[in-house]
Design a protein that fits this description.
This protein is an alpha+beta fold. Helices cover 38% and strands 19% of the residues. The chain contains 13 helices and 12 strands. Strands 1, 2, 3, 6, 7, 8, 9, 10, 11 and 12 form a 10-stranded antiparallel beta sheet that branches. Strands 4-5 form a two-stranded antiparallel sheet. Helix 3 (84-96) packs across helix 6, helix 4 (116-128) runs antiparallel to helix 7 and helix 10 (274-290) packs antiparallel against helix 13 (391-407). The longest helix has 20 residues, at 342-361. The radius of gyration is 26 Å and the shape is flat.
Length: 408
């Protein structure tokens, strides 16, 4: 079974997701410039909501980090009475044994996405095999080292590859197998949803159970600039000019957001635990609805919840409704300008496009379509039968549909 989520969310002036120049991200769609929020930004907001809103327990979440050694594993060994430098070397030897090299500064070569239970198991293996690891561990500087420079064919690159090979050879085969066995995903909800890639251990990659689209504005946008100044509080008599000045780009846009979850893949990623998969799905839907990116929020406070939510439970097939907005929703679409409402017109366009898809392709396999509209007068036609009064009711109806599918 698949579950889809469609949101219409209008944000006040904001800069929620910046590009490399500090400007709000954008793109071209339907021949018009649109505001954009990247899928990575949205997924980060969802993962943060899992923690901050207590939607997923600590032991069922993952952490993405290059600081696994010094922030997670070494402190546990030190707390058990081990020397810090030796502990760092021992942990590095353990990871090198499965080709996850640790640089001289104590960081892994790239971000690792590991479940809390995976980290716990790695710590247990370090403690249980301390004597072995301490004996084979090369001395590791406490910090400040540099990775050998150079590309794949350079001397530095060859040194890095040789170090990985040496680490793998030094670790006893059975311990290396235990480390690899520990990297099983840890039944972490966010890891199961979003997947992971370990470049040096491709067999431990996890296929994502969810797809999250870049949010795009239903309307065409133009960038605006805020020119700001600041005055030194201790020199109020100095009126010659500001002590700091600059500009910040921003826009205001009504976004269409889309995501889906493959419940079968999610269950597989969570070790076949169907009940945990249902709880994870509900947490994902709730977090996707409530989580808002944090970019420039202290300056702009664009804390605007979605105005329209459509969830779809279906046995097969996936429909993004982005093409409802190929023609940008524009002011003045109604006969009189005062009749225009960007959010309402966006909802109407989405509803009309749903009817077009349902008419041409049919609705076979669609199990449930609960809809929540903030505006009770939202212009719904095709989706009107699915109206729900609250977000909680929408989530309950999707959960019930998933439960029926599991039972079947």
């Amino acid at each position: 079974m698949f579950v889809e989520l469609h949101l219409i969310q209008n944000f006040a002036p904001s800069n929620l997701n910046r590009d490399d120049t500090g400007a709000p991200k954008d793109c071209e769609f339907g021949g018009a410039r649109r505001a954009r929020i990247s899928s990575q930004c949205l997924k980060r907001a969802v993962r943060t909501a899992f923690k901050d809103d207590h939607l997923i327990p600590d032991d069922q979440r993952a952490v993405r980090t290059k600081r696994l050694v010094d922030e997670e594993l070494v402190p546990r060994l030190v707390a058990a009475g081990r020397d810090q430098d030796v502990a760092r070397a021992a942990v590095s030897a353990l990871l090198a044994g499965v080709e996850l090299k640790v640089d001289a500064d104590g960081k892994t070569q790239y971000l690792l996405f590991l479940g809390a239970r995976e980290i716990d198991e790695l710590a247990r293996l370090c403690a249980e095999h301390w004597d072995t690891l301490a004996a084979i561990a090369p001395p590791v500087p406490s910090g400040g080292g540099e990775e050998p420079a150079g590309g794949r064919g350079s001397a530095g690159g060859r040194q890095a590859r040789q170090a990985k090979k040496a680490g793998k050879t030094a670790l006893p085969k059975e311990l290396g197998a235990a480390v690899e066995a520990a990297l099983d995903g840890g039944r972490a909800a966010d890891l199961a949803l979003f997947g992971r890639m370990l470049a040096d251990l491709p067999e431990k990659n996890v296929d994502a159970a969810s797809q999250v689209a870049h949010a795009i504005s239903t309307n065409a946008v133009s960038m605006e600039f805020d020119f700001y100044t600041a005055v030194d509080d201790l020199r109020p008599e100095d009126t010659a000019g500001a002590d700091m000045l600059g500009t910040v780009e921003f826009n205001s846009a009504c976004f269409y957001r889309y995501a889906n979850v493959d419940l079968g893949q999610l269950t597989t990623n969570l070790g076949g635990d169907a009940e945990l998969a249902r709880r994870t799905l509900r947490a994902f839907l709730q977090a996707s609805i409530t989580a808002i990116p944090t970019g420039k929020q202290n300056s702009m406070a664009a804390q605007n919840p979605p105005s329209f939510i459509l969830a779809v439970a279906r046995e097969r097939g996936l429909w993004s409704l982005a093409n409802a907005f190929v023609t940008p929703i524009a002011a003045g679409r109604g006969q009189r300008r005062e009749e225009h409402d960007l959010v309402r017109d966006s909802v109407a366009a989405l509803d009309a496009y749903w009817r077009q898809l349902a008419t041409v392709y049919g609705e076979e396999g669609i199990v449930e379509t609960p809809v929540v509209a903030l505006d009770p007068a939202a212009p719904l036609d095709a989706l009107a039968p699915g109206r729900a009064a609250t977000v909680a009711e929408l989530l309950d109806r999707i959960d019930a549909a998933v439960g029926r599918g599991v039972a079947a």
